[in-house]
Amino acid sequence: MTRRILLSHLCSLSLLGAQELSIEPIRPSAFIFRRPYLGAEVPPVRLANSGRLRDLVRAGNLYLTVQDALALALENNVDLEIARYNPILSAWQLQRSEAGGALPGVPSAAAQAGSVASGQGVAGSQAAAGVTIGGVRTGNGTGNATITQVGPVTQNLDPSIQETTAFSHTSTPQANATQSITSILVTKTRAYTLSLQQGFLSGGSATLTYSEHYLNENAPTDVLNPSSAPSLAISFQHNLLRGFGVGVNSRTIAVSKTNLKTSDLNFRTQVIGVVVNVLNLYYGLVAADEDVKAKQSALDVAQQFYENNKQQVEIGTLAPLDVTTAEARVASSQNDLLVSQTNLQQQEVRLKNVLSRTGVADPVLATARIVALDRIAVPDQDDLPPLKELVEKALVNRSDLAAQLSSVTNAEISALGTRNGVLPSLQVIGGETQAGLAGTARPASLFGFADPYFVGGVGTGLGQVFRRDFPTERIGAFFQASIGNHQAQADYGIDQLQLRQTQLSTRKQFNQVMVDVSNYAVALHQARVRHEAALKNRALQEQLLAAEREKFSLGASTPFNVLQQQRDLTAAQSTELSALVAYNDARVALDQTLGTTLEANHVSISNAGLRPASGH
Predict the structure, then answer these.
(1) What dihedral angle (degrees, nearest 10) is formed by the CA atoms of 236, 239, 240, 244?
(2) Distance CA 457, CA 459 (A)
(3) Secondary structure letter of residue 18 according to DSSP
(4) pLDDT for 181-224, tens place per residue?
């Protein structure tokens, strides 16, 4: 499942210009066996900008609509590119959880050089009697790793197969030759062990082990030499208290599945953040450009008024002081224009930085001037539904709220582990072993003769195994309880308190939704009223300036009055622009609060370069 998800996500990245996946072709018959041992091919990071950016540059200008700006940001934003990997990481985490266990499975049976079956030959007889002579290795050694975590550890769910083959040739001096009737015991052994281990979500595991020991030694006392001792064993262990139950042992899988969905929600939230940032920067640039035009118009008017005053001074109809006043107004207008142009350049740099992976380091983008083709538009009416419907829409659409709910779900699932961890440990263990023995009979001697039942090869020994001629059965239980159980109680108490904190934080965030929706709805209404007032005020100031200039041309006004009307018009134009930006910001903020930013701006998650991770 995870490999298919990974390929889907990485292919979606390549749609935005990333290098295509290059996976070595494998024949289908071999692929089935090789696939678990092949690493996934991950394309290198894409550091260059998408081709769309250069296509939009014409004659040194970057011509942008809002949709172009959004598309460039979704293609080239570095933070968004980093976020695209998070769902893929979550998919791998899910696969890791589905494998279970804190470590890969380690079957307990392993063949060692020099090992023989219990009772097989002199060495096996000595081992069965608990005698160790001269360092002959006759036993199996295993080690278990201790894993500590809060709550029970899930069994390893991936089947684990292990095969061990060991050959040896040993020469062992015999301090007591009573049994071997030789001072130096020379043995040749071959040991084969094959085991299969499987864990279960219910809280147990089973191991199937086949072993075969071949022995050839120089002891005259052996009535079978060489001999083979095959055996087949099955063992199991299962938790009955702590670590029992599918719900407890699958909690990590459930959390990983939730995280996989949450990673898509978080990516959606980040896409919304990028879209909101681009909208604010784009329309901020539009407002800055309009402000430059207004300041340039004010400078042109002031310059024209100054030139007119100079002509009237020359013909003697105005005092020279009036020219100085008009010239001061020109200087003030030039300063206002310079400030507005600087603000426009700063807005361009900010917008370029979110549209490009290299920012202004791209030589084409560094010198290009951005020409915004869309203007800020205020609709005739907003048609907002009642506050209750707005809140309900926000609760349904907000991806960050859905992610917060997922965190509560994860906390509740994880609490199953600490709750179960309070219980004592009770395990039932058991198993069955079927043994066989066969070999070549030696001629009758003082030490007896071989039983014909054991004469033969490995097939004879396997026949004894499958006929269950020599069975060994065992069953038992293990119980452990901590007196006081303070550690488990503390873990459970801490976990429950943190869960309550998470639930309260989530409730607080949901309560805040109503406040935010209400505030931004009011802000949108206020911004509309302010814009309408500013629009009327600017129109009135234009009429007042025109009337004052007409009066001045007729000699019924003074230069001071005309300059005052010019300043008032400039202030009215700035107020109108501020109200326009405030309305746009309120609209964008309300869409973000309602969770409708992507729909309102015709942006889909697939356009952002990510396909939902779902399905097996």
Answers:
(1) -130
(2) 5
(3) P
(4) 888 888 999 999 999 999 999 999 999 999 999 999 888 888 88
